[in-house]
Amino acid sequence: MKNKLYTALGLMSGTSMDGVDVSLIRSNGIDEFTNIIDEYHEYDTDLHQKLINLRNLILNFDDLEKYSSRINELERKITLFHSKVINQISLNYNDKIDLIGFHGQTIYHNPQKKITKQLGDGKLLSQLIKKKVIFDFRQEDIKNNGQGAPLTPIFHYLLSKNINNQNQISFPISFINIGGISNITKILRANEKIEENIEAFDSGPGNCLIDEWMRMNSKKQFDNDGLIAQSGKIDQLILNQAIDNFEIQSYDKSLDIKDFDISFARGLSLEDGCATITNFTAYLIAKGIKHSNNDKSKDIKYLLCGGGRKNNYLIKCINDNLSDQTNLSLDIIDNYKYNGDYIESQAFGYLSIRSFLNLPISFPKTTGCDKPTVGGKLVENF
Questions:
Q1: Measured between alpha carbons, how far is residue 325 from residues 163, 206, 331 in Å?
Q2: The total number of structural domains that make up the chain
Q3: Is 132 helix (H, G, I), strand (E, B) or coil?
């Protein structure tokens, strides 16, 4: 008997805080998946800036209480924004949407203190759109001593099976998501024993430091195609010092944008600072890849997802750092008929279905949780 298919809308807003990626998918939450719609909805300049300002204020748990009125105000605005997006898509889509996977906007993440805060009122959203909403995906994992991230690996697992079948790419298959933070998922093989065949970890900054440098030193929000960095000169002394200061010793902790800063590049020109920060980012991503590439006897393909895959200079720098890794190759996931901009939003649609079906969304080898964990809270407020 075939498992029932659900239609779910996944919504993801990442560390760039510039808007929401939205994906409508159909899946049984296990091994079937069809993508229906992918859209990006941009925040207005005022909301974007207020979110960045708030994140910069929240440095510890006490700040969540100290700035609670500002948090509540922005949480309502974020929720209203999402409701308008969902209602707009619902109007244009004739079939029933069963579930909403509502990630919200992370403003503070500290799993060591068992705290993660995403702006987004699931109860209000359900009331506004009159649909079942799954939200608060990370808290249950943290309660089970996990890091609360990354959560997309179980979706990568499904994609790896499809890519293996459709493109005859052999296992192992890895995914590198270069969002604000970079994370790596490695799928050893595809069979019923998911826990034994999937491993994942955060590897370092992705776009966050480059974007922050561009925002602070120019009128641009990001380095388009890496052209600014490519035109600059790397300050090797500063780069070496940054690597020494930020060296990641283990990969068992989830990372936040606040774990890194760009002060080491202070005093450099726009171009030289961008080149140095981009090479710092590339070094840490490459180091994470080397950590995951622990069996040199097997060829392995790493599929790039997220906005950072479009930064040609960043990808070149990552490859330069991998010249001794002869058994691996990097490729963009778009070459396998998946849009690399929307893997995360598709994932949260898929995760909402798994949560609704009481299936685990995180595992000991993906977040460090004690046991496979069903994350997310269901609310039906209409």
A1: 23, 21, 15
A2: 2
A3: strand
Residue 202 backbone dihedrals phi, psi, to 5 degrees: -80, 135
Strands in 198-205's sheet, in edge-to-edge order, are: 198-205, 181-187, 173-178, 300-305, 328-332
| Whether 279 and 324 share a structural domain | yes
Q: How many Å apart are CA 121 and CA 130, to the nearest integer? A: 14
Asked whether residue 347 is assigned to any structural domain, the reply reads no
Token pair 């990001």: residue: 222
User: ∠ CA(350), CA(356), CA(359), 5° rounding?
Assistant: 75
CA 260 to CA 244: how far, in whole Å? 13
**Contact by Cβ (8 Å): 33, 51:** no
Asked if residue 343 is part of any domain, the answer here is no
Q: Which CATH number goes with the domain that contains 285? A: 3.30.420.40
Tens digit of pLDDT per residue, the chain (382 long)?
578 999 999 999 988 899 999 999 999 999 999 999 999 999 999 999 999 999 999 999 999 999 999 999 999 999 999 999 999 999 988 889 999 999 999 999 999 889 999 999 999 999 999 999 999 999 999 999 999 999 999 999 999 999 999 988 899 999 999 999 999 999 998 877 888 899 999 999 999 999 999 999 999 999 999 999 999 999 999 999 999 988 788 898 999 888 898 999 999 999 999 999 999 999 999 999 999 999 888 899 999 999 999 999 999 999 999 999 999 999 999 999 999 999 999 999 999 999 999 999 999 999 999 999 999 999 999 9
For residue 316, being part of any structural domain is answered with yes
Q: What is the chain's length?
A: 382
